[in-house]
Amino acid sequence: MTTGETKNQLPKRERLYLKRDLERLFASGQSFIAYPLRVVYCSEPATDRASGVAILASAPKRRVRHAVDRNRIKRLIREVYRTRKTPLTERCALHGRCLHIGFMYVGNDLPTHGAIEKAMHKAVSQILQKTT
């Protein structure tokens, strides 16, 4: 890999999984809609434990009944995020911030890759604009 290229991976340190972090995100986070996604985000000063960006992808059982479809939606969200995360990680590293983001699917039908990609682009640009 040459310099300037980034890896499009999503390691465990970039995923929200601790109950404490999830509670903090939903209690003190700000939210907006980038249809078909609802985005909740929370920015904090970076600590030794937590730095960079961590995400949560969610598809509610109430709207999407079949587990296969929920898993597909979450996989699409994670895949599109991986390709669009570079500006967020660079901003967090530059300003010494920790950013937690939750992406919740709010549509009723199965989304296409293009729809999720368009929503993710809108979400990332709004987060960058609001966390300046």
Automatic annotation (TrEMBL):
Pfam families: Ribonuclease_P (PF00825). It is an enzyme of class 3 (hydrolase). InterPro entries: Ribosomal_Su5_D2-typ_SF, Ribsml_uS5_D2-typ_fold_subgr, RNase_P, RNase_P_CS. One of its GO terms (biological process) is tRNA 5'-leader removal. Its EC number is 3.1.26.5. GO terms for molecular function: ribonuclease P activity; tRNA binding. Keywords: Endonuclease, Hydrolase, Nuclease, RNA-binding, tRNA processing. It catalyses: Endonucleolytic cleavage of RNA, removing 5'-extranucleotides from tRNA precursor. PROSITE patterns: RIBONUCLEASE_P. RNaseP catalyzes the removal of the 5'-leader sequence from pre-tRNA to produce the mature 5'-terminus. It can also cleave other RNA substrates such as 4.5S RNA. The protein component plays an auxiliary but essential role in vivo by binding to the 5'-leader sequence and broadening the substrate specificity of the ribozyme. Consists of a catalytic RNA component (M1 or rnpB) and a protein subunit. Belongs to the RnpA family. This is Ribonuclease P protein component. It comes from Tannerella sp. oral taxon BU063 isolate Cell 2. The lineage of its organism: Bacteria, Pseudomonadati, Bacteroidota, Bacteroidia, Bacteroidales. The gene is rnpA.
